[in-house]
Write a structure and sequence with these properties.
Blueprint lengths: L6 H17 L3 H18 L22
Helix pairs in contact: 1-2
């Protein structure tokens, strides 16, 4: 399975990482690590999250509200 991250989503993630890093050193890195872990999990389990209206699947991060 190939991962595709939309440009808008990528920019939003980068903004969030910068924001959290400004709040506390290392927190932005923690967000990126959690995001990367979930992307890896999704690639290994692509059919686990249910299909939402609009034809997409969504997974929420546990620690961060993204």
């Amino acid at each position: 399975m190939k991962k595709v991250i939309l440009q808008q989503a990528f920019e939003e993630l980068q903004d969030a990482i910068a924001y959290y890093e400004e709040q506390q050193s290392g927190l932005g890195l923690r967000l990126k690590e959690e995001f990367d872990q979930y992307v890896h999990w999704i690639l290994g389990h692509p059919t686990v999250p249910r299909i939402r209206r609009g034809g997409y699947r969504r997974v929420n991060l546990k620690i961060f509200s993204y």
